[in-house]
Hints:
The radius of gyration is 25 Å and the shape is globular. The chain has a single domain (10-467), classed as Porin (Beta Barrel). Helices cover 8% and strands 55% of the residues. It has a 19-stranded antiparallel beta sheet that branches. A two-stranded antiparallel sheet has the order 3-4. Helix 1 (10-17) packs antiparallel against helix 4. The chain has helices spanning 10-17, 97-101, 146-154, 328-342; strands at 53-56, 63-69, 77-79, 87-89, 107-125, 128-145, 159-162, 165-183, 187-213, 218-229, 233-240, 246-252, 260-272, 281-303, 309-311, 346-356, 359-369, 372-385, 391-403, 406-415, 418-429, 432-438, 457-467. By secondary structure, the protein is mostly beta strands.
Amino acid sequence: xxxMNFNIxxxxxxxxxxxxxLGASAQALRTGYFLxxxxxxxxxxxxLSGERGYxxxxxxxxxxxxxxxxxxxSNFLYESPTNANELVTFMHSSVSAxxxxxxxxxxxxxxxxxxxxxxxMGFKAFGGYNTIDLxxxxxxxxxxxxxxxxxxxxxxxxxxxxxxxxxxTRNFADLSLGHSHKIGESLTVGARAKFxxxxxxxxxxxxxMDLSMNSNRxxxxxxxxxxxxxxxxxxxxDEKTASGKTVVGGYDDIKAGLQGFGMGLDLGATYDFSExxxxxxxxxxxxxxxxxxxxNKAARAAIAPEDSYTxxxxxxxxxxxxxxxxxIEDQWETTRDELEDFFALEDKGExxxxxxxxxxxxxxxxxxxxxxxxxxxxLLYTHCFDDVYSYNQTSLMVSISPVSVxxxxxxxTFSDYGTGFGAMANLHCTGFSFFVGxxxxxxxxxxxxxxxxxxxxxxSFGVNIAFGK
Length: 469
């Protein structure tokens, strides 16, 4: 198949290569949810207003990168049996099927997110606290079933059936206007209106993959679709399906620009139960990222089981990585090229498609210690509504403000992707504000600083100018 600048089928090889981990939730650091001095906690709950006004420094105002996944680089790369300083892929003959498959889950998931603040400011006016944000956001998710890897590793003359293969990326600019307002002594409500400018979108999914194999050829009957809005168009291969239909070979001529538009909304509230129940008890709730983006002139492709096609099979994916054979980079290149032949789609023309933002429900409860009111403990639960990329997280946090301009927090998180520990330090004095933290400390990494055990890692920091008392 002719090589193209961007191929929708190569997306699946990206999971295996794990070359670049980009990250992104459009929300702030969760570990700082209960810190009063945290400038950006209103992104988790718009009712959580800041202590003082601020404006962000260009580029440095706020960067939040995170990834979540139940696998890591060590699931796919192994030490070479002939050279301890080199690696081989999971397809190498020295890697047993039991060793490789024993470390995989039934669904191998990864979410990668990035929130890059271009402009942000907060100020007190109109009877409450107001915020203005312009951020770049990227949300990427992938899901590959266990049976797909079992087929690749143990393949033989037999019939196979699996599905639930998914890849998606959403990239957009977010212009948000927020306001929080206190009602009475206990209740605070807040909202943020979002204007969304779509920059790039791709969604590829196969819910059926049936394979009939013999020693000479494989026949594949699949049900899948792809929608891509990146300013380009499909290109075509010389291959055809069994019914004579043309197969999409790639997506070319990607152009930067506005690919769609949408709107969103964040809603939140907090209630202080100090008068009704016990001093220091505060509960909070929010719904964020309610909304959608309509992507215009998206290139659409699909395949149904009646359009079966043939595949010659994986021929070189298990090659050695020693001085007499291809290095690991060439092994990944071969893997990618063969995977792109494995998936076939037929052009269905252009049209508009819509995508949600991955709405999130946040529920929090905080209790300030009666013996030292600068110390508090809190519990935050989050559920993300995002199709196969949905997840649950529960975090226990301890926050302390030993002096009025310095905060610290630590957290322990339990999620569908495993457990993690985080921390945050926040300095917020008149004229200057700086924070740095993580919701999950990165574990063991490889030479490329990619997590080996799982993809759970995050980092967040920002430098801003604070003003007011």
